[in-house]
Design goal:
Blueprint (H helix, E strand, L loop, with lengths): L19 H102 L7 E11 L5 E11 L6 E13 L2 E6 L11 E6 L2 E9 L4 E12 L6 E7 H6 L1
Antiparallel strand pairs: 1-2, 2-6, 3-4, 3-5, 3-7, 7-8
Length: 246
């Protein structure tokens, strides 16, 4: 009796293909190289683009820096010009103010001179004859040094000369005690106790005086005495503080 026939077994038949693996490897290698070359080219292109952008940015920044430097230079020059102009304006303003002060001082001086001559030529009834018109003091370089100017006038009757002597005394304190010092003892320009005068309208008596360092002046007394048949005396006392403040 014949045995039943078994189903035909399935066999996987692997055919031998010479060079298959080699071709496969070559294809993979070609793709890899192609991809690498493409990536490198893309990288070069991208790198070149970035390099160009950096170059452009650097050039633009350099131009901006140059423009800023130019603007800074212009601004600095404008500032110098403004400072120089302000200095010139200040100088001109100060000069104008000084001129105004000088003119005002001259006006005051001219008014005083005008009043002075008017009083001499057309005096009031109570101010005729010999007068001690004014005394001025000006401090020198040192604290105790002063220049002085005494003005005597003949008011009203100016047809004839008037002559006589004038005595000047500085009254003050030394060691808390009252002391009177004659001008002769303070000034090398005065030789006598009484200074001689002779004039028709007015006379100035000028010189320098030096106070003792321990002497505190309070006032100055001036006594003028004319000579002749119509002799007269004029006396006036000046406050030291008021004299030195002018």
């Amino acid at each position: 009796m014949n045995e039943p026939r078994k189903p035909a077994e399935e066999y996987v038949v692997i055919r031998h293909r010479p060079g298959y693996r080699l071709r496969r490897t070559l294809i993979l290698l070609v793709f890899s190289v192609t991809a690498a070359v493409g990536g490198y080219a893309a990288g070069l292109a991208q790198g070149g683009f970035r390099f160009s952008s950096v170059e452009d940015s650097r050039d633009r920044l350099e131009r901006e820096v140059e423009e800023l430097q130019d603007r800074y230079s212009d601004a600095s020059q404008q500032l110098v010009n403004l400072e120089r102009g302000r200095t010139i304006d200040k100088q001109a303003l100060n000069q104008a103010r000084k001129s105004i002060v000088d003119l005002e001082t001259q006006i005051v001086s001219l008014k005083a001179d005008l009043t002075f001559y008017q009083n001499i030529m057309a005096p009031s009834e109570t101010s005729k004859g010999l007068q001690v018109d004014r005394l001025s003091l000006q401090q020198g370089r040192h604290q105790d040094d002063y220049s002085f100017k005494l003005v005597l006038t003949q008011v009203g009757n100016n047809k004839s000369y008037i002559s006589g002597v004038v005595a000047v005394n500085v009254i003050g304190k030394r060691n808390d005690e009252k002391e009177v010092i004659a001008l002769r003892d303070l000034s090398e320009d005065i030789d006598d106790l009484g200074v001689q005068f002779r004039f028709r309208y007015f006379q100035d008596i000028e010189g320098l005086l030096k106070l003792p360092s321990d002497f505190e002046p309070v006032e100055v007394q001036v006594v003028a005495q004319s000579e002749g048949k119509k002799s007269a005396q004029a006396e006036r006392t000046f406050d030291w503080v008021e004299l030195t403040e002018n």
